Automatic annotation (TrEMBL):
GO terms for molecular function: antioxidant activity; oxidoreductase activity. InterPro entries: AhpC/TSA (IPR000866), PRX-like1 (IPR047262), Thioredoxin-like_sf (IPR036249), Thioredoxin_domain (IPR013766). This is AhpC/TSA family protein. It holds the Pfam family AhpC-TSA.
Length: 184
C-alpha cells in the first residue's frame, strides 16, 4: 500500500464528462448523476483499507445529501489486472453488500481519473450546481485507519454548504488513502 494525499486544487474548474459502465449494467455520464444543487464525484476501490474504513460513512453521507439536491457517483480507477480484488465482479459484490445508493462505475481506461487529477482512493471532488469545483478534501479525520470519534463530517458539511449557498468551505483538509494503481 502506497499512502498518498490529495493536493490543494484551485477551485472553480469544471467537472469533466465521462461515459462509464456501472455495476448495474447501465452506462453513466455526468448529466445522469448531476444534482440540482451539486455533484459529488468519488474515486474509491474495493481493497483500499482507507476506503473500507470509511465506506459505511460514505454510503450514509451520500444518502443524506440526496434530499439536499446533491447527486453522487463512485468510480473505481485501479488496474484490475494487477489488482484483481478491484475487478468489476467484486465491485458488483461490494456495491450490493454495502447497499450503495449511488452508481459505482469502472474507469477501465483510467482516463477519467487522469482528467480529474485523482491520486488516491478515496479522493473526493465536490462540485456546485454550475459544475465548478468547490471541495476537494477528506470525508472526515482518520487515525490508524479509523474515523476519529466525534470528528466533523467534513465532506457532508462541505456539500451541504455547497447545496445551500453555492460555495465550499475556506479550509479544506486533503484526503489520504492508497495510491491509484496506474497501468504501465
Amino acid at each position: 500500500m502506497s499512502l498518498k494525499q490529495t493536493s490543494v486544487v484551485e477551485a472553480g474548474w469544471t467537472a469533466r464528462d465521462f461515459d462509464l459502465r456501472g455495476v448495474d449494467g447501465k452506462r453513466y455520464r455526468l448529466a445522469d448523476v448531476r444534482g440540482r444543487n451539486g455533484t459529488l464525484v468519488m474515486f474509491i476501490c474495493n481493497h483500499c483499507p482507507y476506503v473500507l474504513a470509511l465506506l459505511d460513512d460514505i454510503v450514509r453521507d451520500v444518502a443524506e445529501l440526496a434530499p439536499l439536491g446533491i447527486g453522487a457517483i463512485a468510480m473505481m480507477p485501479n488496474d484490475t489486472d494487477a489488482y484483481p480484488q478491484d475487478s468489476f465482479e467484486r465491485m458488483q459484490l461490494l456495491s450490493a453488500e454495502r447497499k450503495f445508493g449511488f452508481p459505482y462505475v469502472i474507469d477501465e481506461t483510467q482516463d477519467v481519473a487522469r482528467a480529474y487529477g485523482a491520486v488516491c482512493t478515496p479522493d473526493f471532488f465536490g462540485f456546485g450546481a454550475d459544475l465548478g469545483l468547490r471541495y476537494r478534501g477528506r470525508l472526515t479525520e482518520v487515525r490508524h485507519l479509523e474515523p476519529v470519534p466525534d470528528a466533523r463530517r467534513e465532506l457532508f458539511e462541505a456539500m451541504r454548504m455547497i447545496a445551500e449557498c453555492g460555495e465550499g468551505p475556506a479550509v479544506q483538509h486533503p484526503s489520504m488513502g492508497c495510491s491509484i494503481k496506474w497501468r504501465d
